[in-house]
Design a protein that fits this description.
Structural class: mainly beta
Strand order of the largest sheet: 8-1-2-11-10-9
Low-confidence stretches: none
Strand content: over 45%
Order of helices and strands: EEEEEHEEEEEEH
Number of domains: 1
Shape: globular
Distance between the termini: 39 Å
CATH topology: OB fold (Dihydrolipoamide Acetyltransferase, E2P)
CATH class: Mainly Beta
Largest sheet: 6 strands, mixed
Radius of gyration: 15 Å
Helix content: under 10%
């Protein structure tokens, strides 16, 4: 039985999870420099030890209502470079065996935007497992890659 670790976070009452190997670090929310004319899902950029990190608002990404309270940043490797995801709060790290991970049913798969990859079930608590490589919409991946090249 293989165990997998996930970083679990919340947006309001909804729970989400990312495979821990894709998560570089978890930070308290930092000041962000807005980027003029950036797509709405991007909050802007911030400096992390001399590296400029593009920042996405997960509420905007998932088309949820805005929230003004301070949250957390989850810095992830998106496959095109690092990005920080602004979330309401990080709930912790969850260890789950493969029996706790359920594939998405065909009715729940969004083939045009495959950001969700499975469901994590811990008792009666469900979390949507996000695919780090699809967390940034396809049309914006070039921006993340460019930001990471400029920071290198």
């Amino acid at each position: 039985m293989t165990e997998q670790k996930y970083v679990v976070f919340s947006l309001g009452e909804e729970r989400y999870a990312l495979p821990i190997e894709a998560v570089e670090r978890i930070l308290n929310e930092l000041p962000v420099t807005p980027m003029p004319r950036a797509p709405k899902i991007f909050l802007g950029v911030f400096d992390l030890r001399g590296v400029t990190i593009p920042t996405l608002d997960m509420r905007r990404r998932l088309e949820m209502a805005e929230r003004k309270e301070v949250g957390n940043f989850v810095v992830v490797d998106t496959g095109k470079g690092r990005a920080a995801l602004r979330v309401d709060r990080v709930d912790g790290i969850q260890v789950a065996n493969e029996e706790c991970v359920e594939p998405l049913s065909a009715t729940l798969v969004n083939t045009g935007d495959p950001f969700a990859s499975a469901i994590l079930r811990q008792g009666d608590v469900l979390s949507v497992i996000l695919d780090p490589e699809h967390i940034v919409p396809e049309q914006h991946k070039k921006r993340v890659a460019t930001a990471n090249k400029e920071a290198a």
